[in-house]
Structures are given as structure tokens and as C-alpha cells.
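TODO from last week: model Deoxyribose-phosphate aldolase.
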Amino acid sequence: MKKLAFLLLLITIVSCKDSKTETNDATNSEENITAQTIIDKAIEKACDGNCDHAEVSFTFRDKVYKSKRLQGAYTFERITNDSTGLIRDELSNEGFIRSVNDIVLELADTTALKLSNSVNSVHYFAQLPYGLNAPAVQKQLIGKDTIKGEPYFEVKVTFTKEGGGTDHDDEFMYWIHQKNFTVDYLAYSYIVNEGGIRFREAYNPRVVEGIRFVDYKNYKAEDLNTPLSDLDDLFENHKLPLLSKIENKNIEVKLLNQ
């Protein structure tokens, strides 16, 4: 009986110690969580280490988009086939070019900038959250909230003027699942074209060669003074009208040797 009592006492002590360790680990983890660690985990979840050495192609609104990333070099393409022929827009580390039927056109700087921004924007959204560790990105953990009963971190993203591009004044908010670290919702405000606010709900997630892709339901806010952090509540209360759907089709991924 003495041996049994000692054994039960030992089990109780070990259990209490394990429970205390788990509690401390959870507390430390909670205290150490930052916008940077959240984004790092989200990129890891979405890319599995493959986003920075892959060729990706997909179709969006009848245009073909292709990207290639390897060892810091990148090329983003948009290919359009219309009555004028085959139009290829290409943005890379070297700059932007447009060709029609393989003939490179001379473009005004303002035109080239507008076209390059539109190409970059589609590729940016297609592979979010990859890209959120770019040098110009500034991240801030705003807080926590729930959407449809699921727990989320709210991470605000802004951009520095240097390296942030012509749209560096745009602001983004990402709702990143606290357990899965998936970007399930996002919102952004922009200034060009008289400005606007958008809220996106991710759906149809799929993984191709370890890279996660989603489509979006795209909602708009009528009041341009609405804080981005309020959009999740407006969404749950059905106060954001659906504007469009963002669907990327025919997704193909080829992993490259590093």
C-alpha cells in the first residue's frame, strides 16, 4: 500500500509539472506573438517553402498570368489575345516591357507604370500572403476578433514610401486564423480612381505543389471613412454588398531547382 501511495503521489506531481509547463508554454507563446511571427507562420502555411522557387500560371478573366521566382529574381507576365494580336506584358527585376506579336513597344513612362501596376496587383493577390515580408512592408498586430465563430488575429499592413511603389498609401488588414494561420479575410483601402474600400472573403482553397491558392468574394464599403478594422463586423451583419468574385482558374505550378 505504501508503494501504491508513493506511485500515485509521483504521478500527481509529474502531471502537475506537465500541466504547469504547458500553461507556461502557452503563456510565453501568447506573449511572444507579434505581427511578424504571425505573417511568417501564414507564409509557411501557404507556401511550404516553395513560393520562392516556382513557376506559376493561372487564368484570370480570360487572361493568362505567369510568374517565375528563383533566387531573388522574378518575372510576372500577363498574356492577352485580342483583335490586335498576342499582347504580352512582362514585369521583372529589369523593369517593364509590352510586346505585341513579339514586337516590343515604346511606352510613355506613365503608361508603363500603370500597366506594370495592374500586372503586379493580380500576381500579388493570387499568392498572398507571400510577399508580405518585402522590405517596404510595415506590419502591426491590431488585436483579435472572431468571424463566423472562428478566432482571428487582425494584422494591419502599410508600406514605406521608399520601395512601396506608387500605391504606398494603400492600407491593408488581414484576418489570419489563430490556429490554422490561413488568411481567410482581408480588406484594403486605396486612393487611385477616387478611392475605395474592399473586403474579401476567401473560399475554394486548394493546394498545388505545396502552394495554397484561394478565390475571393469581393465586397465593398459605401462609406470611405469606414475603418478597415470595422469591416468584419459589417460583413457579419450583411452590410457589405457583394461586388464581384475573384476566381483564378487552370492553376499550374512547377517547382524549380534552387
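Done. Confidence is low (pLDDT under 50) at residues 1-28.
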